[in-house]
Amino acid sequence: MARSPRAFVLRHTTPRAVPGVEHIRLQLSDDVLGTWRALQLETDDPDAPLPYWTAAWGGGQAVARYLGGHPDTVSGRRVLDFASGSGLCAIAALRAGAARATAADIDPFAAAAIEVNARANGCRVTIVRRDILDEEPPDVDVVLAGDCWYEARLAARVTPWLKRVRDSGIDVLVGDPGRRYLPVEDLVELATYDARTTSELEDIECRQARVYALRPAAP
Ligand SMILES: C[S@@+](CC[C@H](N)C(=O)[O-])C[C@H]1O[C@@H](n2cnc3c(N)ncnc32)[C@H](O)[C@@H]1O
Fold it and tell me: Which of 57, 63, 80, when mutated, tests ligand 1's pocket best, judged by the most ligand atoms within 8 Å of its CB?
């Protein structure tokens, strides 16, 4: 583990406005791969996870834009931002009037980035640092899930958990730029936006990202 994840975040990113939601500024990097190499050295761990927290991913951008245009979705409500990364969706929810926002991410550097980003945007976000996908649905009104379907193993756990969340009466909002493992058959599209990628890992700079609700369970 690095001596200070917060210091690492600040050293390897710069404050930038998020495309489409320019009132939100995050610590971002154009060089995710370079930051990844620095992270591997800093943590002495060649298997350190990719620093997803250095980018505003298409799914998160779409959710953030949707909340800006549809604040009633979260206004006065308790929100969980699952797989929060930079904290973008949690911050967007609070800026749209959410009563409280919790951000869940298993990456300790994401937790540090969320803390820095929340403070810079005048928000207070509670951070959950453990994997909650085997737990009961959280005690919130809305769960946001931005860009969680980029990897088969994660996708295979997120979708059934979100269905349990939905079945317990919690609203679920998904944001995604067309990732391979997105379960489109389980989703109802709500909105489409142009998302400008902030990571060199995407093969195209601009792609469409969609916001979805989970389809209601069959009776
Ligand atoms: C592509 S990023 C999306 C970040 C953010 N939602 C956005 O759209 O910009 C995926 C995030 O999922 C997190 N993640 C992966 N597995 C997780 C799990 N089991 N629980 C919570 N977060 C997880 C990663 O650490 C990473 O920050």
Answer: 57
Residue 199 pLDDT > 70: no
Which residues are CB-neighbours of 160 under 8 A, at least 6 positions away? none
Q: Is the CB of 84 under 6 A from ligand 1?
A: yes
Q: How far is the CA of 105 from the centre of ligand 1 (A)?
A: 6
The contacts of residue 165 (CB under 8 Å, 6+ apart) are 137, 138, 143, 172
Residue 204 has pLDDT above 90, yes or no: no
Global confidence as pTM: 0.96
- DSSP letter (8 states) at residue 163: H
Q: For residue range 40-98, what is the model confidence (pLDDT) as tens digits?
A: 999 999 999 999 999 999 999 999 999 999 999 999 999 999 999 999 999 999 999 99
Q: DSSP states of 100-145 as a string?
A: EEEEE-S-HHHHHHHHHHHHHTT--EEEE-S--TTSPPPSSSEEEE
Q: Are 84 and 108 in contact (CB under 8 A)?
A: no
- Name beta bridge partners: 16: 26
Give the mean pLDDT of 21-37. 94
- Cα distances (angstroms) measured from residue 82 to each of 28, 31, 138, 146: 19, 24, 10, 7
Bridge partners for 79 per DSSP: 101, 142
